[in-house]
Amino acid sequence: MEESDSLDIKKERIRLGRIGVLNSHLSSNPNPMASEKEAALAAVPSDSPTIFDKIISKEIPSKVVYEDDEVLAFRDISPQAPTHILIIPKVKAGLSGLSKAEERHCEILGRLLYTAKLVAKQEGLDDGFRIVINDGPSGCQSVYHIHVHLLGGRQMNWPPG
Ligand code: AMP
Fold first, then answer.
1. How many angstroms separate the alpha carbon of residue 77 from the centre of ligand 1?
2. What does 66-77 look like in DSSP terms, one character per residue?
3. Alpha-carbon distance 157 to 161, whole Å?
4. Distance (Å, whole) CA 111 – CA 123
5. Distance CA 134, CA 63 (A)
6. Residue of the nearest CA to atom 16 in ligand 1?
7. From 5's CA, which of 44, 67, 133, 149 has a CA 20 to 30 Å away?
C-alpha cells in the first residue's frame, strides 16, 4: 500500500470517528457530561460557519428568549441546569472563541455579558447564576461561534468540572 493511501485511510477513520461522536452527542445519551466532552474533543476549531448561523437565520428552530440587532439568546438543546441559555453575537466577525478576541470585539463582548444579566433577570434568577465561556478543546468548546452559557435554577458547585 502506498504511504499516501494509508494516510487517506487514517484521515477517513478520524472523520468517521468524529461523525460518530457528534451523532451520539445529538441522540439521547445516559451520560450527558461525557457526551459534551466527547463532542468538544471531536469538534475541529475553525472559523467556518456553525449550526449557530442556521439558528440565527431561523433555518433551524430554537427557543429564543431574547433578540436584538446584535445578539440572540436561546435555550440550550441539552440543558445542564433548569435554566440553560446561550447568548451569541449575530455577527461572528472572527470570534469563533474567546481566545480569538481582539480590541475591536470589546463592544460585542460587553454586550454579550450585559445581555446575560438582562436574560438572568427575565428568567427570575434573582439568587444568582453561572456564566461560562468554554474555549478550545481543553475548555470543552464544541461550537466555534463564541457563546456565553447562562446557567441557573439550581445550586452551582465550585470548582467546576
Ligand atoms: P460549547 O460546548 O461550550 O461549545 O457549547 C455548545 C452548546 O451548544 C452545547 O451546550 C450544546 O448543547 C448547544 N447546542 C448545540 N446545538 C444546539 C441547538 N441546535 N440548539 C440549542 N443548543 C445547541
1. 6
2. EE-SSEEEEE-S
3. 9
4. 18
5. 21
6. 77
7. 44
For CA atoms 150, 154, 159, 161, give the dihedral sign: negative
Q: 84 an active-site residue? A: no
pLDDT confidence of residue 20 = 37
Q: Model pTM greater than 0.90?
A: no
Confidence of residue 101 (pLDDT cuts 50, 70, 90): very high
Query: For residue 9, how far is its CA from the centre of ligand 1 (angstroms)?
Result: 30
Q: Are 104 and 11 in contact (CB under 8 A)?
A: no
Q: What cell was used for 17? A: 470517528
- Tell me what the mean pLDDT of segment 130-154 comes to: 98
Q: Which of 87, 63, 69 is nearest to 143 (CA)?
A: 87
Strand 130-132 to strand 148-152: parallel, antiparallel, or no bridges (unpaired)? antiparallel
Q: Return the residue matching grid coordinates 428552530.
A: 61
d(Cα 144, Cα 81) in Å, to the nearest integer?
Answer: 22
What per-residue confidence (pLDDT) applies to 32?
61
Ligand 1 neighbours, Cβ below 6 Å, are: 40, 51, 60, 62, 76-78, 86, 134, 140-143
Cell of 40: 468538544
- For a mutational test of ligand 1's pocket, the pick from 29, 86, 92, i.e. the residue with the most ligand atoms closer than 8 A to its C-beta, is 86
